[in-house]
Give the backbone structure.
Amino acid sequence: MGDLFNVEEILAEEEDAGFLEHLIATGTGFVSSYGWFFLAGGIALYFVWKNYRIQTSGAPRNPLSQKELAEFQNKEEARQRYIAKLQGQYEKDAVVRSDKIKQMEEEKKKARLEELEKLDTGNKLGTSKTNLPVQPNSGPSSKGSKPKSNSLRPEYNPLMGDTSGSSGRSCFQRPGRSGG
C-alpha cells in the first residue's frame, strides 16, 4: 500500500500543475485582451486616491484655539478696513475725474459757441475780432463791391473733366485693352 500513496501524490501534483498552467494561461489571455482597460483604470484610481488624500490632509483635524481664532478675526477686520479705505479713495478719485470731464466738456461747448458767434458776425475761423482791420461801411453797395470774375469756361466742370473740344468728348485718353 505504500506504493499506492506515492502514485496518488504524483497524480495530485500533476493535477495541481495543470490547474496552475490553466490559471496562468487564462490570466495572460485576459490581460492581453483587456490590458489597456486595466492600465487606464489604474491611472484613474491613482489620481482619485491622490486628490482624495490631498483634500483630506488639507482640512484641519482639530478646531482652532481661542488665540488663533482671535488672530484670524483681527486679520480679517484689518483686511476689511483696508478694502474700505481703497474703495473710498477710488470713489473720491472717480468724483474728481468726473468733475474734470464735465469741466472740459463745458470748455469745449463754450469754444464751439464762440466759433459760431464768429461765423455769425462774419469773421473767419481762427481769427479774432481784434486782428481784423476796421472797414468803413459805405452802405449796402459795399457788400457786393467785389467784381465777380468769370475765369472758368461755362461748360467746364472740375469734377467731370474738360468737356470742350470736338464732339464734346473729354481730352483724356483711355488705355488700350490689355491681354488681347
